Amino acid sequence: MYSFLTVPIDIIYRILDHLDILTILLSLRNVCTRFNIVIDDYRPYVTLTDLNLCERHINGSKLQRLSCVLKNNTTITCLDLQQNELVADDAKYLSMILKENHSITTLNLLINEIDSQGMQYLADGLCHNQ
User: Which helix (H) or strand (E) holds 73?
Assistant: First the structure.
């Protein structure tokens, strides 16, 4: 019986070939160091710079998991969260990303439901993004 730590890398890559990027990023990141190394070295995602999550219902707990992934990511420069029905509470997670991730230079939040309180969270995140 194999544990993930002993599964050959080519088998892991075959599994990854059948998953979409969102599933990989949200499910495997920060589970263990080995997962991070595999994802970081997996060729199709090594140079991923644009993450387009338009109309994917990325809000609430999904956005919370995404924020855990992206706050330490250094390759994503463009994050598109257009039309995800984001609200003020979701802006808190985006603020956490912006406070720690200095690589994101473009953030698309068009057609969401972020109110003035949510904008304050985003502004706070941007103030710490130096």
Answer: none
Domains of the chain, by residue range, sit at 1-46, 48-130
- The CA distance from 63 to 26, in Å, is 9
Angle at CA of residue 37, ends 34 and 39, nearest 5° = 110
Of the candidates 45, 97, 1, the residue with the CA atom closest to the CA atom of residue 35: 45
CATH class in words for 48-130: alpha beta
Q: In what order do the strands lie in the sheet with 78-80?
A: 50-52, 78-80, 106-108
Q: Which residue has the tokens 């039309």?
A: 83
- The tens digit of pLDDT for each residue in 32-71 reads 788 777 777 776 666 678 999 999 999 999 999 999 889 8
The model's pTM? 0.67
